[in-house]
């Protein structure tokens, strides 16, 4: 088993409930020593303050008994929660969610002020950008926080959400401080901004990559989604903005933000950091980077697609802003071994190229297929689907994007969750059927991958889109182990 980094600091904080209540301009009805904080009853460790918040399906106060049994010494909650809690001393504030990030940072002694923090937001490329930042930093001690989890000094530390809730995040920051981390590059989701998960500290640099259709089950429309992300680019959250002005929303944000701005472009726009002389090849892209004050450095991005050049430029612009040398950063990026499930090349001795990619949004499907077209001599074959219990409107658009850019589209299942898989496939097919190429529907993800392997020849590229690094398929509410990479290798080997 891989060794994992701890998720709580070794140096345990000690606060009385009264001290914490005072910090929130509140009072408490008992005494006790608090040594940590958690937001979910199942994360509580002895000595924690349990933060009981109202949720979409229940009020956290309903789990105060569980929290107590796990060793919680008190509850932070709102008046509604207080009416439900009987078993633990309380600190009551009107806006418990508003208080939790500030208090979490206070409990662990503002740990993120000990290192440089880079917050990365955008619809696509957050994970890739943080991983490229880790590679760019080479021997400097770094941490990444995001969808694949947290890594501290390249060691995994479990975390679940793309942007963890503040109690978990601040504890991880405290571990990073103990590990003498110099830079933490983290993904900042729009959910996190709306829910105040990154309140309580200020990023040194905030990065905007792009904005496209996503999460319209959470945000009421694209404008609402944009404004949620734009909040990161205010003094409450960040000191400096690094913005991709090739993206229309990026251009708008650069004009809107009150922060000092550094811009970047791979598309010939007048930006502070520019990619020129871009030379794509089968394994990645070579180019030159032009920066402020006559900086010029060669860069070799070892991941295919111009969008990865954009991600790499975001890394150089943001870390140069934080004081790192662009030439060293470029040298570090060239050593990147890639990101699990992001444009991941699978080689099991087959005559065609096989790629597993986490593209699960229409723009990502387009970006991936556009990137692979110039390096594919034969046909582009994509296996694609759409997740259940999420934004239905996205499904035909996924099919449409695939059909517009691939020669063969195999529409299949992609985490149907509790929904009927055939109905989701029909939605995706309704978009895929409009393209110039061949669109076929195959029930069952394994069967669809087998179909792609069976039809691929020398010179073709097969893309298995959607799940990337993930290890399971939720079908009728039950998780079934499934790894695209393993299944692909198994099917290639058994086809030989
Ligand atoms: C829509 C959303 O963001 N929901 C979040 C929200 O859940 P909720 O309001 O439904 O909470 P609830 O289940 O009613 O529970 C109420 C409270 O009781 C607590 N509880 C609940 C059950 C229990 O046994 N014990 C317990 O303590 C919960 O921690 C919560 O504080 O509050 C919970 C506690 O913090 C979060 O875990 C939960 O995230 C869920 C898991 C989630 O899937 N969020 C996704 C949508 C998300 O945030 N995604 C973004 C990235 C998206 C992307 O870019 O792809 C992310 O940053 O990960
Ligand atoms: N800058 C970009 N522009 C467009 N597409 C991109 C970009 N970077 C990555 N992609 C595509 O999006 C997919 C997801 O990339 P990545 O995981 O880095 O994004 P993310 O923002 O972290 O996504 P999520 O929040 O859903 O985890 C990649 O596998 C690739 O297909």
Summarize the structure.
The protein has 496 residues and is α/β, with parallel strands linked by helices. Helices cover 32% and strands 22% of the residues.
- The span between the termini is 32 Å
Individual helix count = 16
The major pleated sheet works out as:
11 strands, mixed
* Portion of residues within helices: 25-40%
**Which spans of ≥5 residues are poorly predicted at pLDDT below 50?**
none
Cα-atom radius of gyration: 24 Å
- Helix and strand content put the structural class at alpha/beta
Number of strands: 25
Shape field: globular
Side by side, the strands of the main sheet go 10-9-8-11-7-12-13-14-15-16-17
| Bound chemical compounds | ligand UAG, adenosine-5'-triphosphate
What is the beta-strand fraction?
15-25%
Q: Mean pLDDT, rounded to whole units?
A: 94
GO molecular function, one term: UDP-N-acetylmuramoylalanyl-D-glutamate-2,6-diaminopimelate ligase activity
Domain Mur ligase C-terminal: 341-468
Binding site for ATP: 122-128
Motif (Meso-diaminopimelate recognition motif): 414-417
């Amino acid at each position: 088993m891989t060794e994992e980094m701890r998720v709580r600091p070794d140096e345990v904080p000690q606060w009385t409930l009264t001290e914490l209540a005072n910090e929130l301009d509140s009072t408490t009805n008992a005494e006790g020593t608090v040594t940590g904080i958690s937001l979910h009853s199942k994360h509580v460790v002895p000595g924690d303050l349990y933060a009981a918040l109202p949720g979409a399906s229940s009020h956290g106060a309903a789990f105060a008994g569980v929290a107590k049994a796990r060793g919680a010494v008190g509850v932070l909650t709102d008046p509604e929660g207080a009416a439900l809690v009987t078993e633990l001393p309380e600190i009551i504030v009107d806006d418990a969610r508003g208080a939790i990030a500030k208090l979490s940072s206070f409990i662990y002694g503002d740990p993120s002020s000990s290192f440089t923090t880079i917050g990365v937001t955008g619809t696509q490329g957050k994970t890739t950008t943080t991983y490229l930042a880790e590679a760019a930093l080479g021997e400097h001690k770094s941490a990444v926080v995001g969808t694949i989890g947290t890594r501290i000094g390249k060691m995994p530390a479990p975390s679940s959400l793309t942007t963890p809730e503040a109690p978990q995040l601040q504890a991880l920051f405290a571990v990073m401080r103990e590990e003498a981390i110099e830079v933490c590059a983290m993904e900042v989701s729009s959910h996190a901004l709306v829910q105040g998960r990154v309140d309580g500290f200020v990023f040194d640099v905030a990065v905007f990559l792009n904005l496209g259709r996503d999460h319209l089950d959470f945000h009421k429309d694209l404008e609402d989604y944009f404004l949620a992300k734009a909040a990161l680019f205010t003094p409450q959250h960040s000191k400096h903005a690094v913005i991709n002005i090739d993206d229309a929303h990026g251009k708008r944000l650069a004009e809107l933000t009150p922060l000092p701005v550094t811009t970047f472009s791979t598309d010939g726009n007048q930006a502070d950091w520019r990619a020129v002389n871009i030379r794509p090849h089968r394994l990645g892209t070579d180019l030159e980077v032009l920066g402020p004050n006559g900086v010029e450095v060669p860069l070799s991005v070892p991941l295919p697609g111009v969008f990865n050049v954009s991600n790499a430029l975001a890394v150089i612009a943001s870390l140069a802003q934080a004081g790192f040398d662009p030439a060293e950063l470029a040298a570090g990026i060239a050593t990147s071994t890639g990101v699990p499930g992001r444009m991941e090349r699978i080689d099991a001795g087959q005559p065609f190229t096989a790629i597993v990619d986490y593209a699960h949004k229409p723009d990502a499907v387009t970006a991936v297929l556009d990137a692979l077209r110039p390096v594919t001599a034969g046909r582009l074959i994509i296996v694609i689907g759409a997740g259940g219990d999420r934004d239905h409107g996205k499904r035909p658009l996924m099919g449409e994007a695939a059909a517009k850019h691939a020669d063969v589209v195999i529409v299949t299942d992609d985490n149907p969750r509790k929904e009927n898989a055939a109905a989701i496939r029909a939605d995706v097919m309704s978009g895929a059927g409009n393209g110039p190429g061949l669109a076929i529907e195959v029930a069952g993800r394994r069967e669809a991958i087998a179909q792609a392997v069976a039809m691929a020849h020398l010179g073709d590229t097969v893309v298995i889109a959607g799940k990337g690094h993930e290890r399971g398929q939720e079908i009728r509410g039950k998780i079934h182990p499934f790894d695209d990479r393993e299944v692909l290798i198994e099917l290639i080997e058994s086809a030989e």
